[in-house]
Amino acid sequence: MDTNQVSLICKALSDPNRLRIIQLLTYGEQCGCELLDQMQITQPTLSHHMKALEGCGLVSSRKKGKWNHYSLNCDQWTAFRDYIESIRCACISDEKGGCCCS
Amino acid sequence: MDTNQVSLICKALSDPNRLRIIQLLTYGEQCGCELLDQMQITQPTLSHHMKALEGCGLVSSRKKGKWNHYSLNCDQWTAFRDYIESIRCACISDEKGGCCCS
DNA sequence: ACGATATATTGATGATTGTCAATATGATTT
DNA sequence: AAATCATATTGACAATCATCAATATATCGT
Fold first, then answer.
1. Which of A43, A51, B6, B78 sits a CA distance of 20 to 30 A from B27?
2. B39 touches strand D (CB under 7 A)
3. Residue B89's pLDDT band (boundaries 50, 70, 90)?
């Protein structure tokens, strides 16, 4: 995953509502109305946020009948998580002589 | 670290230039002019970005004479990294029966 | 066919953002 | 004191964003 892609994902996560949605989806797939029940926003706003989360590849949607089921895109999230994890600060811990971020 | 703080950090990282600055600072403390040499932005823009990165607590600055030395705030970065790492998707891998994100 | 439900789109608005040129501040050197 | 260098601030502008009300689309149950 390259820098621009990471920035796009960070932009998607820069809204507390969207970060909350991601966390809700870690419990598994949910439809829009379920997500809506757990949040304090209107339905068009939720739709807008879901589009943003889909746009950066973090969320996938699966339409079944009336419902649209959203789920966290595991591969994309893992790639993002790995990227963030790979950034480590260079400071030295006094205690063990290693990096304090280890 | 709470959700709002994470969102603020994500917003700070949602600009590719700022993400790049964070990566440059993983090599250790650098002054503004050093950072500027490695980027394609003007000095006021760099100053603006550094303020944003300081504002969310990711970067600390230390003034010494003419120079302002910036460094990655290890504790804050680690807390952010841990938060992101703690978000795991619930999908099940077919291969080993565990979570594919492990 | 009709009403109800889930979701998407449109249009509008106020707020925030990234960027630069111009200028200011503050420290060092000559 | 004057010139130089590193950085910060101001002011401006175009672009993007989060949000909602209103409306549209699509699917299900009756």
1. B6
2. no
3. confident
